[in-house]
Every structure is written in C-alpha cells, then in structure tokens.
Amino acid sequence: PPAAGAELSGVFQLIGSLECYFTNGTEKVRFVERQIYNRQEYLMFDSDVGHYVGFTPYGERNAKRANSNPEWMDDMRTAVDTYCRYNYEVFRPFSVERRVPPSVSISLVPPSSSQPGPGRLLCSVVDFYPAA
C-alpha cells in the first residue's frame, strides 16, 4: 500500500520470463518460467521440479490449474528441448563464444602526504569478457 497521504500511481507491472540455464553446453539444461506481478513472483515452473509452484493464493490457483492440464504440462516439461536446446545455437556466438579483449592502462600515482615515498604504478585492466 502507498504511504500515508500518497495516492496510487495507477501503474501496474506484469512480467513473464522464460530462462534457460546451461551447464557444459547442452549437457545439463534447466528451463524456468516465472510470473511476476508488481515485483512479487506469484508463479514458477522449474523443469528440475517438473511442475508449477504458486507463491501467493492467486499463484497457487494458477499452479493447480496448470498442473492438472496434462497436455500443457507435457509442453512445459519438453521446453528444455523445444525452447532452450533449440535456441542454444542461435545465442551461442553472443554468449558462450563471446570474447572481449581487455582494456589496459598504466599510470603513475604520485606520492601523497599520507603515503610518503616514491610514486607507484597503477595498472588497470577492465572491460573484458569472460571474467576468467
């Protein structure tokens, strides 16, 4: 609820997300669907679990409805293959094979009154991918 004296904005947000998690390429793949309303996740399907889970009363009703539909659940359980693995080759060049060379700079840091003595060299390596 809004703070005392504040009015509702009239803006509501509904987000649905489909996520694929890959381990060792397509060896181990996990598919997750999330339904979020106003920053609160109310419903989730996780292929590792194999069914919908509701996190609010509304989400629980929707989970029960979806879980009781065998055709829908078959589609959701195969989304690992039909959605994730199917699209892996499309995104692989931008994710798995992505390489960004580092940007390197070396600068002299002069001595300060708090740290007397000779200056120091500062080497900065930034903007590279992957982190390893």
From TrEMBL:
* Record's subcellular location: Membrane
Quote any Pfam family the record assigns: MHC_II_beta
* Membrane topology, from the record: Single-pass type I membrane protein
- What is one cellular component GO term in this UniProt entry? MHC class II protein complex
The UniProt record lists the MHC class II beta chain N-terminal domain at: 18-92
Gene Ontology terms describing biological process: adaptive immune response; antigen processing and presentation of peptide or polysaccharide antigen via MHC class II
Residue ranges spanning the membrane: these are none
Print the keywords alphabetically: Adaptive immunity, Disulfide bond, Glycoprotein, Immunity, Membrane, MHC II, Transmembrane, Transmembrane helix
Q: Which region is the signal sequence?
A: none
In its UniProt entry, what is this protein called? MHC class II antigen
Source taxonomy lineage?
Eukaryota, Metazoa, Chordata, Craniata, Vertebrata
